[in-house]
Amino acid sequence: MKATSIFRWMLVSEWRAHIMQIVVALIAIAIGVAMAYSIHLINSAAFNEFSAASKSLSGQSDLQVRGKKAFLDEGLYPVLAKHPGIALANPVLELDVAVPGKQQSRNDHKLKIIGIDPFRAAQISPDLLGLPEEGETLDRIASDTIFLSPAAMEWLQVEQGDALQLQAGLQTIMLRVAGGLVRARAGQRLAVMDIGTAQWRFEQIGQLSRIELKLREGVNHAAFKAQLAEELGESYWVMETADQEARIANMSRAYRINLNMLALVALFTGTFLVFSTQALSVIRRRQQFALLRVLGFTRQQLLRQIVTEGGFLGIIGSVLGLGLGYAVAATAIQFLGGDLGANFFPGVKPDISLDPWDALIFFVVGLSVTLLGSIAPALEAVRAKPALALRSGAEDEAMAKLSTPWFAVICLSLALLFTQLPPIFELPVFGYLAIALLLMGGIALMPRFAVWVFSFLLSRLRSIRIGAVVTLVLARLANTSSQAAIALGGILASFSLMVAMAIMVTSFRVSIDNWLGHVLPADLYVHTSVIGDQGGFQSDAQNAIIALPEFDRVEFFRTQKMTLDVDRPDITLFARPVDKMNPRNTLPLTDDVIAPGSLPEDAIPVWVSEAMVDLYGYRVGESVALPIGAAFGEFLVAGVWRDYGRQFGAIQMQLADYQRLTGDLSVNNVALWLQAEVRLNAAIASLRQLPFGAALEISRSSDMRALSLEIFDRSFAVTYLLEIVAVIIGLLGVAASFSAQILARAKEFGMLRHIGVMRRQVLVMLATEGGLLTALGVGLGFLLGWSISLILVFIVNPQSFHWTMQLHMPWSWLLAIAIIMLISATLTALVFGRKAVSGQVIRVVREDW
To answer: What number of other Cβ atoms are within 10 A of residue 388's Cβ?
Structure first.
């Protein structure tokens, strides 16, 4: 009972006496846990909702058959319907159709339409059936009707019986809203119509998106799946629901994991602040602990006391973090959506749900890192000999034990090794470990580095009359480097992480801006609302655009989707005019390219994005098989180009080669260069005067670049927030570390006052000390952050997102934050210095007499 009372008394008195340091540590832990937990909640909710919505579209099917192109020939349907192992085959046509007047950014102007056979769907996906008015059952197969989910009706502002206008290529289609659906998930914008009507109205005659299969009883699913895949050949995929879920998970996995890793940045900084708080607390109470040992406290009791104090910090901070994380997640979904602005799950409106096990995991993570920050000072305290610890001045010896260089050397060596290792499961695991080790090694090396720097300055400035105050400052920093390193470490941790993230985001943004200038060279870009896999501009429309006198140059593009791996999202194929003599004039190529003169005359060249190299193993100079045309064709990989718009892969080829292989002369997009004397508004007006001008979507290249950068900023909104969090935690850490050390040095200030140092000189000394420490921390933090940014830019990003970029420095932002930290550290030193030197000198040093 006595031990319990002593423990409670020591904990309460310590926290009451140094409440600011405790509050700062709690804030750091809470913010770290909150950021990680909120990102997990948002991504889990969005993924689960998107996955559930996809399952609802598949109904009770056992297998699905899809083409490697976006659509497959409906001639396969009767073959599968007669297969002896298949009880039911259900044809489905799925289209994303434009709604005139809706916002065209982030696919918010698209309505998903499912074309079904109502008689087949009733047995395999009854939720998709339309609910017509009583007595109007034939509306389900009528040629002018469509059924909408409640969310779609609300979004389109229509009711049963209203007319709905949709855009299909250059045509406007009018349909009648015949009713709702049997069942649709909350927030799911969905429309259903008869498959024959959908094929006819949207010019997809003979095309299907997939065929859903219900197998006969007793058929082994796995064996039948393998057998059917072999029967159908390489042009088709046979998939299960689990395969579709894997594709959905792969869409956002890298983005999700990277955000979680960046969120742990705040938690890591919080861990160091806990270490700083606990180390200063233990050293300040070193004589108190020694006295307890003399009075009978065992080492185990003392260790339990210190670790439990850290545990209370972790418990309170983690609980606060979980509550704050839930609030942040709920708020972020309202403003950024379920995809945190990255558009991985468009149209999804998830609800945050609490999973006790998830909350427990993040609570344990927060508590664990807090205990980790308490272990080193606790072990040093229990190992100290009571007789030596009771002596005044033993604090520096204790600090020196916490700053041995071997740990730093091991961390930095391992970090260097890990930067050379490949990704694991396409994730930069070793890259993140290298960042963590670099941070730990850099911080652990600070005491030694501080000795070198301040000793060098002291020796160099001795021959110059620098005054007593500066001499005292440099002498103290050079001889009590371990205590200085605690304050320095807080600055270093936060500033280096902020620098690294700022450089990474700036490098990415500038690289994208430069890339957009390369891929959007024309003055205007024109496209239509593409339906399915058809091009919007047929030959007559193309000729009409070419005939316009306002344009000096016209280029046509053809895009379509292809599925090369059942577990990965679709890739994009671009067919366009490419300058064969110098492809760099057309494409943002890397250095990995075949010289134009070295291409074989009979080869069909393609240029692949960096993601195709990483994900599919395409190599320059190799032949690859692609489902272009009636069958798989052989193509030569002629070069690699940067593509920041499609993370999962893209391929470019000559438009003439595509048209020769497929016989498809339609195109999706048009790039237009103006005549020298023509203004943009006049050119746009001329396009609008075409017979199909009202259906055109016309974009200025400048507007497209601005929109792309706006989407980028929205996607990285969380990263910007994490940068601000790192800065705030760093500033709190500066305040806590300086205040704790200044208050602990009251005796030192008392002795200085006794020997004639004036109060004003003590304050100047503290301000100078704070400024020098912060300047060193900022300088070293910049070097460490720059090193971490190299890992982020050249290792983490290529391994996560499969693209490379150039390094760019945000000098103005970095300078502004450095100045803020310098000012805050100096002001903190002055504020707490005034408190430390305001008491009576005799009272401060009385206990030393």
So the answer is: 12
**What are the structure tokens assigned to 695, written together?**
């259906």
Which of these three, 239, 265, 295, is where a domain ends? 239
Instruction: Provide the CB-side half-sphere exposure for 715 (13 A, CA).
Output: 19
Give the structural domain span for 86. Answer: 63-239
Measuring CA to CA, how many Å separate 675 from each of 549, 628, 682? 8, 36, 11
Pairing of strands 171-181, 145-148: parallel
State the amino acid at position 800 in one-letter form. Answer: S
User: pLDDT per residue over 236-266, tens digit each?
Assistant: 989 887 676 666 666 667 666 776 776 666 5
Alpha-carbon distance of 107 to 347, in angstroms, equals 9
pLDDT band at residue 416 using 50, 70 and 90 as cut-offs: very high
- Total count of residues recorded for the chain: 849
Q: Are 637 and 619 in contact (CB under 8 A)?
A: yes
Kindly state whether residues 691 and 711 are assigned to the same domain. no
Which one-letter DSSP state was computed for residue 697?
A: E
Within 13 Å of residue 266, how many CA atoms lie on the same side as its CB?
Answer: 36
d(CA 201, CA 203): 6
- Asked whether residue 169 is domain-assigned, the answer is yes
Summarised one tens digit per residue, pLDDT across range 687-736 is 999 988 888 889 999 898 888 888 787 777 766 776 676 667 666 666 66
Q: How far apart are CA 144 and CA 722, in angstroms?
A: 51
Closest by CA position to 278, among listed 38, 489, 58: 489
- How confident is residue 339, by pLDDT bands cut at 50, 70 and 90? low
3-class DSSP state for residue 367? helix
Helix 467-479 with 481-519: angle, nearest 10 deg: 90
